[in-house]
Amino acid sequence: MSENQTVISDLTNGVLQITLNRPDKLNSFNEEMHLAFRAEIERAHSEKTVRAILLTGAGRGFCAGQDLGDRDPRNGERSDLGHTIETFYNPTLRLIRSLEKPVICAVNGVAAGAGANIAFACDIVLAARSAKFIQAFSKIGLIPDAGGSWSLTRILGEPRAKALALLAEPLMAQQAADWGLIWKAVDDDALIGEATAIAEKLAAGPTVGLGLTKRLIQAAANQDLDTHLDMERDCQRTAGFTDDYAEGVTSFLEKRPANFRGE
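The structure assignment produced for this chain is given below.
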């Protein structure tokens, strides 16, 4: 286990659990937490022992986005928010989306602003029934960042994306699940257990094949069928040469559980 003031991480059974740890600030991001969180995602890219990520928050909230106390205009100086996005949010979002390992998100409370949009960048999102998602940007004169204007439109379509972003009304977990914005809403006391079970199942799976599947699905909306069929061919060729494919077929023929090694 590694721990600093803002992020706690633990690697168990191939699952790197990352817990945002500023509960007194609803886990809102300051510079220290930005860098610590990104370091853990980079670790997942580089370490073979990490085969899945489980992201959650400490305390009663998941993440309230940026800590506005660090951007207080009453201090007499206006911050370059584009620099904040380019330096902190965008690199981390790109790392999450490009990681060819499953990223599970357990939203344990309010997910506001960039906190909601980081969740939407993950592969499978579960939320406690009491949790809610808020695109709070319009309340302070800003636009949805951390990929929010992209994710909401891609997942929900333009009408709902615009309403959520412009009105900044809370979207409860069950409605988010009904709309297809997240995988499912679960009872609050079952959230971490169910999310951990999913993460451990995926961590014990054929890592290369799962990563290639993630790559294909993320690319599907941006290319035509012919291009995508060629991409499926190339990815299947890669998957077919893995040890995990050989183990999967062998275990099927031998009528036993597969022992995938992520190779």
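Interim note for the steering committee: The longest strand covers residues 7-12. The chain has two domains: 2-203, 207-253.
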